[in-house]
Amino acid sequence: MLEVESLTTRYGAIAAIREVGLTVRAGEVVCLIGPNGAGKTTLLSTIAGLLKPSSGQISLGSDDITDWAPDRILRSGLALVPEHRRIFADLTVNENLMVGGVTKTATKRAELLNQVVELFPVLGSKLGTSAGYLSGGEAQQLAIGRAMMAEPQLLLLDEPTLGLAPLLADVVFDLIGTLRTAGLTLLVVEQSARRILEVADRGYVMRSGEVVVSGLAGDLLARQDLFDTYLGRNADSA
Q1: Residues 37-50: pLDDT tens digits?
Q2: Over the stretch 108-119, which tens digit does the pLDDT of each residue have?
Q3: 213 and 198 in contact (C-beta within 8 Å)?
Q4: Which of 75, 93, 163, 180 is the most buried (most CB within 10 A)?
């Protein structure tokens, strides 16, 4: 579904990611793990069209989307749930979801809204509530639900458990399983490396802007040397 080849993205003279390659197959959960500053968010932002690479290629299915605008990428079936959620706090839950479905007709938005609240019942009970009053876990569900209103086939999740208490983080990891069951393909950046490897199919480890290790999630999970060398204590814990 997604293929990234030799991708380099720069901030001025600094290469934030260098010659990165990865693949995501339909139906998979693939994770990107690594220390802070490794380039994971830059990679997702580049794939989603928010940043332009200086070299390399991004393919979504049979399409070369490397130079596409973000809205065209969204319409083609790839949606990003950004770091820190970035919901609109002054809008209601319903209004946030409608923003996510802006590329759809009114009839299709109503259909997608029903699907989202079926997956996330808490949102259905708070459609008229200002998003700023949601808990961290509810806000993360809203951010994911808003992205799903675009009817994506591939969902990019950037640090979905960031800032959440352990019990709420558990909810998010359960959601990842729910999304997979619903037929979505997922590429997930996550600091809790062990937790995400437990639910992912495959993983890529990034450090200093490069992919340094990749493999089946179970194989990566079994490598304590990987955690000692690249991921550190925070990623080693829940």
Answers
A1: 899 999 999 999 99
A2: 999 999 999 988
A3: no
A4: 93
Spatial distance between the Cα atoms of 50 and 81, rounded to a whole number of angstroms:
12
- State pTM to two decimals: 0.88
In the block, tokens 């951010």 appear at 143
The CATH code of the domain at 2-87+152-236 is 3.40.50.300
Residue with tokens 């928010």: 50
Task: Enumerate the domain spans of the chain.
Answer: 2-87+152-236
Q: What's the whole-number average pLDDT of the chain?
A: 90
**Contact in structure between 9 and 55 (CB atoms under 8 Å):** no
**Measured distance CA(236)–CA(238) in Å, rounded:** 7
- What are the CA-CA distances from residue 160 to residues 19, 102, 139 (Å)? 26, 23, 10
DSSP 8-state symbol, 228:
I
